[in-house]
Amino acid sequence: QVQLVESGGGLVQTGGSLRLSCAGAGRTFSIYDMGWFRQFPGKEREFVAAISWSGGRKYYADSVKGRFTISRDNAENTVYLQMNSLKPEDTAVYYCAAKMFGVGWYFPRTEVEEYDYWGQGTQVTVSS
Fold it and tell me: What 8-state DSSP symbol labels residue 119?
């Protein structure tokens, strides 16, 4: 089992940047594929970005491609989401999620039900 804690959210103006962090504790962090999701008020959680357990593969939702970058530092047990050129429509609660590497591995995982562990979320607000 792994515990996830997000940080780095806040209020930023349109065009600004934020870097979200997700710190993992518990089992070896490097055996988990990681994902970032976001949730708008009254909506279901949607996929933002994913990174494989080694960091060698990355995948993005079309809505954030070219603006957001996912990365990880397994030595620090942390995954990051660098968000640039932010827009008001990026305003949401952002969650990180983890799925253990194992038999039948595939990538990317873009659905909520494909992940086993979740953080508590961090609010990102982009003002116009």
Answer: -
For the residues 14-32, what does the mean pLDDT come to? 92
Which one is predicted more confidently, 88 or 29?
A: 88
Whole-angstrom Cα distance, residue 114 to residue 128? 34
At 19, the pLDDT band (50, 70, 90 cuts) reads: very high
Residue 88: helix, strand or coil by DSSP? helix
Report the C-alpha gap between 82 and 64 in whole angstroms: 11
Dihedrals phi, psi of 88, to nearest 5 degrees? -55, -30
Beta strand residue intervals within the chain, DSSP E:
2-7, 10-13, 18-26, 32-39, 46-51, 58-60, 68-73, 78-83, 92-100, 117-118, 122-127
